[in-house]
Write a structure and sequence with these properties.
With about 240 residues, this protein is α+β, with helices and mostly antiparallel strands. The chain folds into two domains: about 170 residues, Beta-Lactamase; about 55 residues, Winged helix-like DNA-binding domain superfamily/Winged helix DNA-binding domain (Arc Repressor Mutant, subunit A), CATH 1.10.10. The protein has nine helices and eight strands. It has an eight-stranded antiparallel β-sheet, sandwiched between helices. A hairpin with an 8-residue loop joins strand 5 and strand 6. Helix 1 packs parallel to helix 5 and helix 8 crosses helix 9. The longest helix is centred in the middle third of the chain and has 21 residues. It starts with a helix and ends with a helix.
């Protein structure tokens, strides 16, 4: 299942700003990261669905682009970079980003960044450990307008995803976050029946509710979990520890 489809859906739910007045400043921030940390810096414009990519020496070492190169892409998914990530790590990265978005949606504080270790291959198909970081930038205090993804060689190693409050130094593990309130108890109950293959009519009879009520719950489940079908919804609920 493509988790980036769910990320797209969740980003559409968030309140996005309308005035891209800070784009030049944010692009400059990304360029500075690439220069000073020799990192790959990806600034994704979430409103317009485009990305600005700046390459430090890391990009050249991995055989993606020469140091100092700038690329513009008409998508927020940097395929030329994502294709270099180990498949197992890519799925984990996308799940971490989805969890981080849920966290940001609750906290409404853009002082946090998420970070994890992943493997990326070079031109000779040799994998290297990199530190991946993502933070969100805003045009105003009530919006998420840009995502800044940074890739640099890892100087340390740790397992899983963690979040760091850049203003206070506080650290939280993604695995310790509580996502239990995303679905209501009734929605969780109906999702379990759906996973067992029961039709809406059967679920309505078992729960003594109308079929319209069941269908409404089904739609709410898909919307909340940003899934295209019930199988994806159940898988996502399990990954988030909802059921």
């Amino acid at each position: 299942m493509k988790i980036n489809t769910e990320l797209n859906s969740l980003l559409e739910v968030l309140q996005l700003g309308n005035n891209p007045t800070s784009e030049p400043a944010f692009r400059q921030i990304a360029a500075v990261y690439a220069t000073t940390e020799q990192a790959i810096a990806v600034l994704s414009d979430l409103r317009n669905g485009v990305s600005h990519i700046y390459y430090g020496a890391v990009g050249e070492t991995l055989g993606i682009a020469k140091q100092g190169t700038y690329h513009f892409t008409g998508t927020i998914w940097e395929e030329e970079i994502l294709s270099k990530i180990h498949p197992d790590d890519l799925e984990e990265k996308q799940l971490f980003e989805l969890q981080f978005l849920y966290f940001q949606q609750r906290k409404k504080q853009l002082t946090w960044q998420m970070e994890n270790i992943l493997r990326m291959k070079d031109a000779n198909n040799i994998y290297h450990k990199l530190l991946h970081r993502i933070l969100y930038l805003s045009e105003s205090s009530s919006s998420i307008d840009y995502a800044l993804c940074l890739y640099s060689f890892a100087s340390t190693d740790f397992h899983g995803g963690r979040m760091v409050n850049l203003a206070t130094g506080e650290t939280q593990l993604l695995s310790e976050q509580d996502y239990s309130n995303i679905l209501s108890p009734r929605e969780k109950e109906i999702l379990k029946y759906i996973a067992k293959g029961h039709l809406s009519k059967e679920i309505a009879q078992m729960l003594s509710i109308s079929i319209n009520t069941v269908n409404r719950h089904r739609q709410n489940i898909l919307q909340k979990l940003h899934s295209g079908n019930s199988f994806e919804a159940y898988k996502r609920a399990a990954e988030l520890g909802l059921i």
